[in-house]
Amino acid sequence: MTPERTRERDRERELEKERERERSMPRIRLDLPRERRARLLPEYDPEAFGRLSERIARFLGTGRFIVWMTVIIILWVLWNIFAPGSLKFDEYPFIFLTLMLSLQASYAAPLILLAQNRQDDRDRVNLEQDRKQNERSIADTEYLTREIAALRMGLGEVATRDWIRSEFQDLIKEMDERRDLFPGAGGRGRDVPDR
Q1: 140 with 82: CB under 8 angstroms?
Q2: The predicted structure's pLDDT at residue 145
Q3: Are 112 and 58 in contact (CB under 8 A)?
């Protein structure tokens, strides 16, 4: 074999290896969505979770929640003070009650913050829409103002009814004055025609 033939064979082998590597690698296509990866954490619908958090936050901000919470705490305390010793589940310092209230507060705070963030997002979108609507209204108002100004300028050169009426009245006065200066010129006062 010649050295040229050997080089060609080596090049072909290298190209074949490169093609094989390309085939073994997954092809990345931009027109297809990525395959889902296995996740360790459970998946949830953020929109549904957000709606649930808003409902909980809305309930936590009502008088009904405060009344129910007060009733539960009073019953808890009364049960653990006056119940027989074998039925008590939380003795006087009420450590379990404190734990339950802390647990409720630790869940309530993030849910309320999530609901507030969602409300802020909605407010931001509404504010942006209002701003765009205001810009359109201002542009429309400026356009109408320019049109009215153009009409006023155009009407300044147009004869109005009052102006024409005043001109006619001036002409009638002028004609009456001429008749008074030339009394025989209008054909008045002559009963007999000229022969």
Answers
A1: no
A2: 94
A3: no
